Amino acid sequence: MKNEERIVILIDGSNFYYSTAKKGKKVDFQKLIKELIGSRTLVKTHYYVAPLDIEVNEEKYWGHQRFLDKLRRIPKFEVVLCALKKIKSDGKNIYVVKGDDVKMSNTLIMGAVDNLYDIAIVVSGDEDFIDSIKIVRERYGKKVENAYFSRSSSLNLRNSCDSIINLNKIINKLEVKKGSVLSEDHTEH
C-alpha cells in the first residue's frame, strides 16, 4: 500500500542545471522524482526556469524549448517560466533568472495554506527559501525536505528543513540511459 503522505517537489531549474552540468551529468527527471518520493504520493512537481535568449543562439533556444516540452509530458509535472534578464557588465552580457525564488516561495506557502501537500521537497541550495520554509513548518505544520548538491548548497537551508537528501550520493542512479528523452542537454545553456 502506498504511503498517504502527499508530496510536492519544487525544483530550482537554474541551480539544478548548473550543479549537474559541473558534474557532467544528465539527469532523467522521472528517475529523480521516483527517487525523491519513494513510496509516498506525488501531488505535483514544479520546475522553475527561464527560457533562453533566442537572439544569442537560436539553435540552443529551440533545443531548450524541446527539452521543456519533454518535461511537460511527464505526469504531474509543471514547467513554471520565469524571466531572463540581460545585464551588461564590463562589455559582456550576463543573464540572470528573475522571479524564480519568489514563484517557488509562493508555491510553497500557498500550497500549505490550501493544504495541497504534507511534505514539500525543495530541490535547491539557495537559502532565500528559509523564511518560506519556516512559515510552512511553523504555521501550517508542513514538513520540508531539502534535496541538494554539496557544492551549491547552503548549510542554513539544510538546517531549516526537517530532513535532507544529498543528491551527490544518488546522482549515478539518476543518470540518463542512452535513448532517454528526459534529460537536459548541457550544451543548451
* Main structural class: alpha/beta
The Rg value, from CA coordinates, equals 16 Å
Provide the helix percentage: 25-40%
Instruction: Please provide the count of β strands.
Output: 8
CATH topology value = Rossmann fold
How would you characterize the overall build of this protein?
Helices cover 35% and strands 26% of the residues. The chain has helices at 13-23, 29-37, 58-72, 100-113, 130-138, 155-159, 171-174, and strands at residues 6-12, 41-49, 77-81, 83-89, 92-98, 119-123, 143-148, 163-166. The protein is globular, with a radius of gyration of 16 Å. Strand 7 (143-148), helix 6 (155-159) and strand 8 form a beta-alpha-beta unit. The strands form two sheets. A six-stranded parallel beta sheet has the order 3-2-1-6-7-8, with helices on both faces. A two-stranded antiparallel ribbon has the order 4-5. It has one domain: 5'-nuclease (Rossmann fold, 3-Layer(aba) Sandwich), CATH 3.40.50.1010. The chain has 189 residues and is of the alpha/beta class. The chain is built from seven helices and eight strands, in the order βααβαβββαβαβαβα. The chain starts with 5 loop residues before the first strand and ends in a 15-residue tail after the last helix. The longest helix has 15 residues, at 58-72.
Tell me the layout of helices and strands.
Layout: E1 6-12, H1 13-23, H2 29-37, E2 41-49, H3 58-72, E3 77-81, E4 83-89, E5 92-98, H4 100-113, E6 119-123, H5 130-138, E7 143-148, H6 155-159, E8 163-166, H7 171-174
Parallel strand pairs: 1-2, 1-6, 2-3, 6-7, 7-8
Antiparallel strand pairs: 4-5
Helix pairs in contact: 4-5
